């Protein structure tokens, strides 16, 4: 059994209370659908996200397990075939990790084609986040469970604007990927993006909003060089690496976990 480093006695008691409050079905649903193992680390993430309210964390984790079972299902992850049209836009990349070990997803906003149904966007976000989490777990046993998202908005136009997609990102982070965001970097956001942000930001939890930073070209070199080794980022972001699409990362992760056998999530 994993103990949580740095937890107070009161927090440990609440972790134990949350464990007792959750049914065996919740644990089975999460583990059976590629979600988390209900260890102390997972329980603590949900308690931190719900301000240590055991009742609320119990309800939300139970809802999350139900969602995971219906939205992702027993394959353990969203299959490539379900997100084919999104993959074909070549807009999302999983590059590796920053110097703190945080898996980093890059989204190129200028390549996003808003779908007719926001469900397609949600599936793709889940597909990317699950890959990032698997990468973090395989990369280091001491990973803090958090990821970075860099949205390169430099080539974004009105045609790429998608309020529903941005809301979906935050809805998923707040309801299903709690305490998973280390930082979100909005790079070179044009005026049109500010209009979208104005519509979405009232729905974003204040703790999450503090993790969102706007970076412009003049600060980019300092920011990215400080956080990343050059080979992790592509040239568009001042690095020396190639773009690496999420589907390729998934194939590598699954090969490493033993062929097609998807390893159960450790966090």
Tell me about this structure:
- The chain is α/β, with parallel strands linked by helices and 267 residues long.
- The chain has two domains: 9-71; 80-256, 3-Layer(aba) Sandwich (Phosphatidylinositol Transfer Protein Sec14p).
- 47% of the residues lie in helices and 11% in strands.
- The protein has eleven helices and five strands.
- It has helices at residues 9-21, 24-32, 40-49, 54-71, 84-88, 118-139, 163-175, 191-200, 206-209, 217-227, 246-256; strands spanning 92-97, 103-108, 147-152, 181-187, 212-215.
- The chain has a five-stranded mixed beta sheet with strand order 1-2-3-4-5.
- Strand 1 (92-97) and strand 2 form a beta hairpin.
- Helix 3 (40-49) crosses helix 4 (54-71) and helix 6 (118-139) crosses helix 11.
- The longest helix is centred in the middle third of the chain and has 22 residues, at 118-139.
Give helix and strand order, one letter per element, not per position. Answer: HHHHHEEHEHEHHEHH
Largest beta-sheet characterization = 5 strands, mixed
Number of beta-strand segments: 5
The CATH superfamily of the largest domain is identified as: CRAL-TRIO lipid binding domain
CATH architecture of the largest domain: 3-Layer(aba) Sandwich
Overall geometry = globular
State the CATH topology of the largest domain. Phosphatidylinositol Transfer Protein Sec14p
Radius of gyration: 18 Å
How many H/I helices?
Answer: 11
| Through-space gap between termini | 12 Å
Average pLDDT rating: 92
- At the first level of CATH, the class of the largest domain is Alpha Beta
Share in helix: 40-55%
SS content category: alpha/beta
Q: Note the beta-strand portion.
A: 5-15%
User: How many domains make up the coordinates?
Assistant: 2
Strand order of the largest sheet: 1-2-3-4-5
Protein name: CRAL-TRIO domain-containing protein
Domain CRAL-TRIO: 80-245
Pfam family, one: CRAL_TRIO
InterPro entries: CRAL-TRIO_dom, CRAL-TRIO_dom_sf, CRAL/TRIO_N_dom, CRAL/TRIO_N_dom_sf
């Amino acid at each position: 059994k994993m103990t949580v480093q740095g937890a107070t006695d009161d927090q440990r008691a609440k972790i134990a209370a949350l464990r007792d409050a959750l049914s065996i079905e919740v644990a089975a649903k999460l583990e059976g659908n590629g979600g988390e193992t209900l260890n102390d680390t997972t329980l603590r993430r949900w308690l931190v996200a719900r301000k240590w309210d055991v009742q609320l964390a119990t309800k939300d984790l139970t809802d999350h397990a139900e969602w995971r079972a219906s939205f992702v299902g027993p394959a353990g992850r969203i299959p490539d075939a379900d997100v084919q049209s999104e993959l074909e836009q070549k807009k999302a990349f999983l590059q590796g990790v920053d110097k703190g070990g945080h898996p980093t997803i890059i989204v190129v906003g200028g390549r996003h084609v808003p779908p007719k149904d926001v469900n397609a966007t949600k599936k793709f976000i889940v597909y990317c986040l699950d890959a990032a989490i698997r990468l973090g777990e395989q990369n280091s046993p001491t990973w803090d469970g958090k990821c970075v998202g860099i949205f390169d908005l430099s080539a974004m136009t009105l045609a790429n604007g998608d309020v529903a997609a941005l809301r979906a990102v935050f809805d998923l982070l707040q309801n299903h990927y709690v305490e998973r965001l280390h930082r979100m970097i909005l790079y070179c956001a044009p005026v049109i993006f500010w209009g979208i942000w104005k519509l979405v930001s009232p729905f974003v939890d204040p703790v999450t909003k503090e993790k969102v930073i706007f970076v412009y070209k003049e600060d980019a070199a300092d920011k990215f060089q400080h956080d990343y080794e050059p080979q992790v980022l592509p040239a568009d972001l001042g690095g020396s690496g190639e773009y690496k699409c999420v589907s390729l990362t998934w194939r590598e992760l699954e090969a490493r976990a033993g062929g097609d056998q998807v390893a159960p999530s450790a966090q």
